[in-house]
Structure formats: structure tokens, C-alpha cells
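Notes from hallway chat w/ T.B., transcribed later so I don't forget. T.B. wanted the structure written out for a chain they're using in a teaching module, and asked if we could keep both sequence and C-alpha cells in one place. Agreed to drop them here.
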Amino acid sequence: MNLISRLPLYRGAAVLLCAPFETLRPALEVAGQKLSNLEIVIGAALGAWVVGLLVQRRLPRVARGPLLSASALLAVMAVSALLAPAHQREALVFMGRVLAGFSLFLLFADLGWQTAWPSWVIRAALPAGFAVALLGLLEWWSATAISPLLSRFQEGPFYASAL
């Protein structure tokens, strides 16, 4: 497998690795819209995926059932957001986030048609899961020592009462 054929894997892996570590403060502000580090990674992954589809001159491979039902839901949400009598801007922002989530679904569904799906998902998700578990254990063990690192991702320490 050469570098070009691995690019879809890297895009998906980048999203999976960054997902648990979205910062509280925005990393970038564009046209009044504040973007977190995760939103930037998702945008870059989606942009690269769309460019890849254009270069390959193909549409994403997705099962028709989920595609049609999600498209109908998105259409209803778009009309609702556009016709909202109050808080239209917030409704449109929400609609944009739902659309980004649906686009991520398309990216991962399309990626599933191209690769050995379970193996790459596990290889990408395991390091992120281990990092989250390790940070959680370190916070439980010594919240004051790890809190400067975690302050970028949470407002205060998280305490699990079951421990």
C-alpha cells in the first residue's frame, strides 16, 4: 500500500485520535465563527476527502438506506433552520454541525468500502482510548499534578465517585 492509497486511513485516524481531546478555547476564529482544534481537524479531513473524491471522479460509497433517511432528516432540519422565527443564526450553526457529522459518517462509511475496516479503526482508536484512560487514572491519582495539562480540555477536575 503506497502513501496515496493510505491517505484516507490517515484522515480517519486523525479524527479518531483527536476526538477525545477537543480544547475548551477556540483554536481559530474565521468570519466570527470560533473553531476548536477538533473542528479544524474534521474540516481538514473532510476537505481532503472531497478533493480525493474529485480526483478519483467518484461519489462516496454508502448504503442507500442510511443515506436516504439522513438526507431527508437534513432537508427537514435545513428548512426548519431557515424558517426559524427566532435564533435563526444558532439554528443554522446547529444545522452546520449536524451536516459536518453526517459528512463524517459518509467519510467513514466510504472508508469502510476501501479498507480492512475493523483493523484500522482499532489501530486508530486504541491509542486515543489508552491516552484518555491514562489521563483519567493520573487525574484520579494526583489531580493537582495533571490539572495544568487537562485544563485545556476541561474546566475542572473530574471525580468518579465509584472509585
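Follow-up for T.B.: The beta strands are 28-30, 33-35. Might be a good example for the class.
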